[in-house]
Each structure stands twice: as structure tokens, then as C-alpha cells.
Amino acid sequence: MFEQGQYLDYLIRRDRFSYLGNRLPVKLARQLSARNRLKGTITSIKKGGVVAGVEVKLDGTGDLVYSVITLEAVSELKLKVGDKVAAIIKATEVMISKG
Question: What pLDDT band is residue 90 in, cutting at 50, 70 and 90?
Fold first, then answer.
């Protein structure tokens, strides 16, 4: 069993997070509590006045994830179509519906 933070350290050492590259420094990755990281490729970036919609095609499934982030984040991360990224999902709850 891993102590808090040790599992992420283990994965980083095992190079499981190489796709994070320079976009998410290891120190920051250790600080994130979100554990749902989905690898993919940016397929579109639609810039608005303050925010941008970033569409990511997930590796393996081809499913699309859409995120709205600030224009400042797009600039700081130097995001562009074709970049390999991780969609990091943090939710306070998960609902289930039958039928």
C-alpha cells in the first residue's frame, strides 16, 4: 500500500507520466489530488474573449473531452492543435442513472 503522494512518485519514477512533459512540472503533479488523467491529443482550440475551449481526442478510444480554460493558461502552456496532453478530471461527485 502506498502512502499519500507515494503512488504518484512511483508512477513518475516508472515513467508513466512522461506525457506530462514540460506542461505539468513534477512538483505540481505531486500537489494535484485528481487521479483521473486521460492522455490524448488536442484537436481544436476555440478562443473567445477570456476563455478558450480545448477539445482533446483520447488515446485508445478516440472519445472527445472538451475543457474550457483561460486564454492565459493556453498561452502559458503554449498549447496548439496536435499537442499531446493529459486531461485531468477532478469531480466532487459521480452520479449514476439506470436506464
Answer: confident
